[in-house]
Amino acid sequence: MENPSIEVRINGKDRQVPQxxxxxxxxxxxxxxxxxxxxxxxxxxxxxxxxxxxxVAEKDTLELVHFVGGG
Amino acid sequence: MDTPFKVxxxxxxxxxxxxxxxxxxxxxxxxxxxxxxxxxxxVAVRRVDLDRTKEEGILHHLDPEEFLLLPNTAGCYNxxxxxxxxxxxxxxxxxxxxxxxxxxxxxxxxxxxxxxVEAAKILVDExxxxxxxxxxxxxxxxxxxxxxxxxxxPLASPIGSGLGVVxxxxxxxxxxxxxxxxxxxxxxGTASDACVTMEQGVDGVLMNTAIAVADDPVAMGEAMRLAIxxxxxxxxxxxxxxxxxxxxxxxxxxxxx
Lengths: 71, 257
Hints:
The structure holds two protein chains of two kinds. By secondary structure, chain A is mainly beta. Helices cover 10% and strands 39% of the residues of chain A. Chain A has a single domain (5-65), classed as Ubiquitin-like (UB roll) (Roll), CATH 3.10.20.30. Chain A is built from one helix and five strands; from the N terminus they run ββαβββ. In chain A, strands 2-1-5-3-4 form a five-stranded mixed beta sheet, with no helix packed on it. Helices cover 35% and strands 16% of the residues of chain B. Chains A and B meet through strand 5 of A and strand 4 and helix 2 of B.
């Protein structure tokens, strides 16, 4: 059987991601470095210590941000 | 002898703060910043590009141990958005310093000083070290100091304009009246502008575009380092009063018949 997936909104775009991922798992699945990314889940900023315990659920809205060049 | 440049509880040996935007390559950015001698650098908070083509996070190139990161709230047009960006920046875990910037007009990019004071009050209460970008307006500057900003940063001229200090009198007046450091932020176009800005007696200068878009950003970084030092020294040295008459430098006595 195929891995079931869920739909979540990430950075303004709907995406299918594997079901049952933690936030850390999602970041790794997206090939991102968890230590350099800040996660806002349904408008709440997540402390990095919660990335492991929180599971991404259907219809979640996530913002994944990081530092870029700016003045 | 100069007094140390201190913001909040931290001393800096360079009075120049630089931005990290608009560079052609990350390597040029790092080289230009090193040439400028800046120890504090601004960064922006943006969405990660999930269809990664070019843009990766700046921390892959800039070591937060080498530079004090000063995240900005650039792009925000109201207090609520600026506070959201500020909290995201702090959650990254590298710094509780913040360059608070709230724009009030898309054409001139002039700041909304009312919203800036409002946001600064909340962010100071939350423990941020707020350095507030503002207009060259004494009243706004006094209010920002009053709500607890660790530095007040009036503009020289509009962001990215390169026009230099358009109102030196207001900049001097702000510096005279505030106790916290006054750092001129935005509008410097070339080394002479940086020098003139420092000659007004301000504590420091923040710039980005002037270095980043120069033909040779590394050389311009070095030029800015020297200009900031020269301007500071000239200010401390105390310039001669300007006068609109000529006065000979050589003795008028002892001339031949």
